[in-house]
């Protein structure tokens, strides 16, 4: 028989073991919670001291340096909401003996800067939307120029948008206001748009502004015009910083009617440029950023994942397709994919018929007033003497489709691939419809193919880029 005292000791040990087993999960949870809390505090402490452009830290216990600069063509930085300029940023640990207030101010300054950039880029987007539809084939772009100082805060010096193809870009209208050449860059840009109302109804102030703006633009396109208008207008002391917020990368190429905007910014002694979206145009494609950075201008490009950057890219998405799609660049023949033979055309006609029956086919009518002189061609047409290519050329010259109409057709072709154009309002003879359709394709809607001409309608097809939606049956 077992000793009662020994038996009692064994029962006590067993009871203690049960208590420990019951308490172990609680200890485990406490340890895990403490570890997670410590990690959160460490993460908060470290992230609070990431600076924008290498601000000097005060008495840190240790620090290390890392570069946030990213190649503009590889816009894939996930480290911060913005791609920081190619300068060294300082990431500092908290000091051992105080100084927390100074580091908190530094972090607050960085967050305020990001919020400020977002605020003014949103304003630049609002400016760009004023020109959307009127700039075809160019993209819609907006610009806001802001001067910042500790004493005065932020002051908007100028705003502008690109009004139409062939005219200076958004940056120039913002610079005209900032330099004091015009009172309002938005009004100046609006003054060059084609009036839909009778110009006799315009007041004298509008006429004077239009005349003044055209004179300034004539000066700008001269060899020394940009220097004459904008030389060193932002050359300030170290207490002020001038930043230009542009929805699309400033251009750097010279094979166009106006001087490059990147070079004009350099002439104006701009301090910093924030870019909403890299220009996909092969003539630019990061070149504008490189030109400015190589001349000591700080350039920040928005990270593509930031919502405001996505708005900038969305605004020029159709322009990006036009400027990069092989079917447009190669005239509709890229690796045989866009070679539309007779069998494929029959398939597309059949598909368009089904889409029309179920109401899903996009149909767009040319709403122009028409060419009143075409009625006189009826007798000549019956005699076979009409040169329809000449007639349609005159139509395009005298009553061209509005940029808004072309923008609408172009967008629907990219989105739906098949679009039916109704041209009865612009040309009365069916024989001229096909020629007019070909002229539209070759002049405005490059990369499109005429699938069918029936009556006064033209069925167009253009494959979506980068991946077509319509697949041809074998």
Automatic annotation (TrEMBL):
Residues 115-290 form the CMP/dCMP-type deaminase domain. The keyword Transmembrane helix does not apply. InterPro entries: CMP_dCMP_dom (IPR002125), Cytidine_deaminase-like (IPR016193), RNA-binding_CRM (IPR001890). One of its GO terms (molecular function) is RNA binding. Gene3D superfamilies: Cytidine Deaminase, domain 2. Residues 338-473 form the CRM domain. SUPFAM superfamilies: Cytidine deaminase-like. It holds the Pfam family dCMP_cyt_deam_1. Keywords: RNA-binding. This is CMP/dCMP-type deaminase domain-containing protein. The lineage of its organism: Eukaryota, Sar, Stramenopiles, Ochrophyta, Bacillariophyta.
């Amino acid at each position: 028989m077992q000793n009662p005292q020994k038996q009692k000791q064994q029962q006590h040990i067993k009871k203690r073991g049960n208590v420990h087993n019951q308490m172990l999960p609680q200890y485990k949870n406490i340890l895990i919670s403490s570890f997670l809390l410590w990690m959160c505090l460490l993460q908060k402490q470290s992230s609070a001291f990431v600076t924008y452009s290498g601000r000097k830290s005060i008495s840190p216990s240790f620090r290390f340096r890392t570069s946030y600069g990213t190649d503009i063509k590889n816009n894939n930085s996930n480290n911060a909401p913005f791609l920081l300029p190619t300068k060294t940023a300082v990431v500092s640990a908290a000091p051992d003996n105080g100084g927390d207030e100074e580091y908190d101010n530094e972090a607050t300054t960085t967050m305020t800067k990001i919020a400020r950039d977002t605020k003014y880029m949103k304003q630049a987007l609002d400016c760009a939307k004023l020109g959307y539809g009127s700039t075809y084939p160019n993209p819609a772009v907006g610009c806001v120029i802001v001067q910042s100082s500790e004493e005065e805060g932020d002051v908007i010096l100028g705003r502008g948008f690109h009004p139409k193809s062939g005219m200076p870009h958004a940056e120039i209208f913002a610079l005209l206001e900032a330099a004091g050449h015009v009172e309002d860059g938005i009004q100046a840009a609006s003054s060059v748009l084609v009036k839909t109302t009778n110009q006799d109804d315009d007041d004298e102030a509008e006429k004077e502004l239009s005349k003044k703006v055209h004179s300034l633009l004539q000066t700008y396109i001269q060899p020394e015009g940009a220097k004459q208008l904008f030389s060193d207008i932002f050359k300030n002391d170290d207490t002020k910083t001038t930043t230009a917020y542009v929805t699309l990368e400033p251009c750097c190429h010279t094979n166009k009617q106006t001087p490059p905007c990147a070079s004009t910014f350099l002439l104006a002694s701009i301090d910093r440029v924030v870019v909403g979206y890299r220009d996909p145009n092969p003539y630019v494609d990061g070149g504008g950023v490189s030109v400015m950075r190589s001349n000591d201008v700080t350039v920040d490009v928005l990270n593509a994942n930031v919502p405001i950057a996505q708005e900038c890219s969305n605004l020029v998405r159709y322009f990006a397709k036009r400027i990069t799609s092989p079917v447009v660049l190669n005239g509709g023949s890229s690796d045989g994919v866009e070679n539309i033979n007779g069998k494929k055309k029959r398939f597309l006609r059949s598909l368009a018929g089904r889409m029309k029956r179920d109401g899903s086919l996009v149909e767009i009518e040319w709403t122009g007033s028409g060419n009143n002189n075409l009625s006189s061609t009826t007798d000549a047409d019956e005699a076979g003497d009409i040169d329809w290519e000449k007639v349609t050329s005159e139509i395009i010259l005298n009553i061209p489709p509005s940029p808004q109409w072309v923008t609408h057709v172009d967008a629907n072709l990219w989105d739906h691939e098949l679009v039916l154009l109704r041209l009865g309002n612009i040309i009365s003879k069916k024989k001229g419809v096909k020629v007019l359709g070909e002229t539209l394709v070759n002049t405005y809607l490059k990369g499109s193919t005429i699938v069918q001409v029936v009556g006064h309608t033209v069925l167009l097809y253009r494959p979506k880029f980068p991946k077509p939606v319509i697949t041809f049956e074998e």
